[in-house]
Amino acid sequence: MLINRRTFLYATGVLAVAPKISVAQLKDTYYEVLLRHTKWAETQYDATAKRYRRTDFGFAVVLGNAVLLTRGTYDAALAGVEKDVLRDHTLATIKHFAASNVLAGGTEWGKTLFWDTTFQSYFVLAARLLWPDLDPRTRANVEAIARGQADYTTSLGTANDPRSGSWTPNGLTGGHRGDTKLEEMGVYAQALAPGLAWHGDGPGWREAFGRWSRNEAGLPAADLANPSTVDGTPISANTATNLHDTFIVENHGSFGPHYQEELWRTSGRNAVHFLLAGRPLPEVLTKQPNGELLWRTILATMSDAGEPLMPMVNDREHLYGRDVIPLAFRSTVLRDPMAARSEAALASRLLAYQAHPPVHRLAKFSGEAKYEPEARAELAISYLLHELRPPAKPVSEAEFFTRAAITIDHGADPGLLTHQSAAAWAGTVTKPGFTKLAWQPSHDDWLFKISGSTPMLLPPVAVTGRTTVAYQKIRDGFDATASLLRFADGFAGTATLPTGTIVCALPRPGRVDVHNLALTGILTGARTYTGSAGRVTVQAREGFRVDELTFPATTARHVRMVGVTPHPTYGYSLFDFEVGQGTTTASSFDPGYEPAKATDGDPATRWAVARAERGRADSWIAVDLGTATTVQRVRLRWETAAAVAYRIETSTDGATWTSVASYPRADLSTPGWLDVDGRAGFVARSAEPITVRGDTITVPAGLVEGYVRADLRKIAAEPAPQCPPGVSASAADGFLSLFNLSGADVTGTVRLRGTRLYRGTQVTTRDGTEYALSLPAATARVEAPWFTARGIPAGVTAVVHNAQRVTFRGGPAMFVLVHRDGRSLPVALGRGERTVSMPLVTPFPINDLALGRVTFPNSVLPPGMSDPGAAVDGSERTAWTPGRDGRMVVDLGDAYNVTTSLKWTNGVPPPHTVTYSLDGKTYGSALPARYVAVSTRWRPGHASLRSVVVRA
Questions:
Q1: Over pLDDT 70: what percentage of the chain?
Q2: Which segments carry the region annotation Disordered (predicted)?
Q3: Is 21 exposed, middle or buried, given 0-12, 13-18 or 19+ CB atoms closer than 10 A?
């Protein structure tokens, strides 16, 4: 089925927003996208050689071709090539590269694990789809490739592939800091799958496949706690450490969701071989050790487009064609309704994405050249997975983000404190080189630029100290995060709230870059900004930026551009610096990109700063006009490395310089508040304005609040809390966010408007309260507005012990205490002290370190065992059934001196013991401990475990 009229209108821009598609339409959408992509695929065809190119594995387009040739209704107009011609190109290519593969006796490609085997997997699959059309010799060569690769990979044991250079899985030990070996172990497993699927079990193949697959997401603390068997082997036999202990994956020195998804990307490539061959899937493809805890981290960063947000990745964001297959695998093979929602969201954008220049491509905006044939192949596999396995029914988008809501502090090493709420995503990033408060209102994949080294709100300098709190609803009554970051020259504070709002205490102005493209069906090509000073619409810039600056006429011999803020990655580079003829010099240049190339009149040549100088702010390029000349205009045509900010200076002698113009000039400068396209906005508690310059927003130093679709004018009119020196506070959305921006403990009073009551002591005033503050050095915290006191007079002291109990003194007084959940309680206060408890509410925060924590076994449970998480979910209606001799482990996240108590359901508890561990490997009675284990000799008829309560 080709796209209907409505979808066509979206893709051509008559309608502005990408349509939602149903799961039933996914396969048809993938087919059409493959058809349209064929116009790009045919650019890889070498008419002289009569086959697709070897360069960047361009010949891998044959898999997409094979799907189009053997499935669906082929449309030559959309594909740009007749079906018979496509068949001829494809068969000739398969014949050639089957013969030229090293494993079939050729010399051109193949056998090398990194990265030839990925393309071998695609290639073998394409050949199998077209098997009846292949000649006997080509079939024999394809069989030799699959068998030979399995034999070769098995022969390596756990050693490195000598053909692959420095690429290594590090044996079965793996590695997780900086660059995970999850991907490398996946490649070893992937190299074995075609042989196993199409030729059965060769000598050692299945054992090797299982060993590499089970260890891909290996983490000893989790694996040693899991006696479950997968393909007959206990998970506890795993030896690899490929993840951080918060189930986050690093690659290229930073958190990489793209690589975290590699577990399901390689699984998708592998599973399709078995399914097409009619063989049962190896159990490890459906029972993946630690797979669900890895997925939990992906959900904690997921966008509304089905692609994880990537705050520390420079070159994998918006790589839509390659993001489909992990979701398709989880949706079809694992039957995951959350993945089904993400896949439908991503697929809904594919046609609009594909229509944007460069047209027809599936891996634009980022990535390597080989990603394009990979994206085609993986979309083809996604099509096949949907053909071979019915997908799960997706949850709604609202339910998705409600279920995905979580706060996780991944620690100082990964450098990420993250908060996924129903309304927004936020992450405080402290990894060197990536410092930012990344905020994406409405989970909008195309609103703010947050990827890689792009700075956002926080200063892009090294964090020298970090204190954080991750609040969780199950234990604290609300989800939020708070952090206080120390820099060499000061502090910054951040808080994220359950409403999606963020709060920043900034030591210097903060920067926010806005996506602004004419990406029909996804982005309209303009952004509208509104503030108290007015409204402005900024049109999207297409192509390289051109700046034309005019200024009052001045006499000068020398004119120069002096950088103020460089491109965050590449510094400065100019195709043209038009001011007049003369000698051109610069502060530095890269070989081949000399200064004169910016003034030579050739639009294809350019000047670029030296690589070592890319991070330097004040790089310059200057023209000596030879004699005093009247100048009043300059024109600068930038390459990708365009200055964020710079100034134009003139001089008569080349020694003394005068600034005559600067870039950018503000499109809008507005005090107090700024709305961004009706989607989000900022309120600045500062006398300095918020400015918009092109696609960059600058907020002033001080306290800044970010809101998702709110009445900003009204919020900005509300007075900010009054704080002691060194402290900043916000009452955004009723929550009290507190920041001690100093190296000393602070006590004092925070003056607030209104009658909200927070945990701690406060005294009512005529128009608010005075909150007694005690805040340790360089820390931050968030307090929930548990109560309001309706009709309470001034002079009453309220001590909020928790979300249930309050002590009042300072009467007599009559008022109504209203709980955050809407319950109310009349209070009659005499001259003495009175403590009241709100009935039927939970007394948050709960002193139980086990609540909501990760438990093991996870992802794969032993026979007869229910999910151990039921013992730490805070519910009286759930319980953990251990199964025969079952054992569970609770990960407290950090080491504590603890006491543990157990609560069983009615009946006889099984014999049991409680032991402790610091490392998750050895257990005993010693404290402190991070891991708490409950071991049982459970038999049918014994009670189940209602709760594990662990107190510090």
A1: 98
A2: 865-884
A3: buried
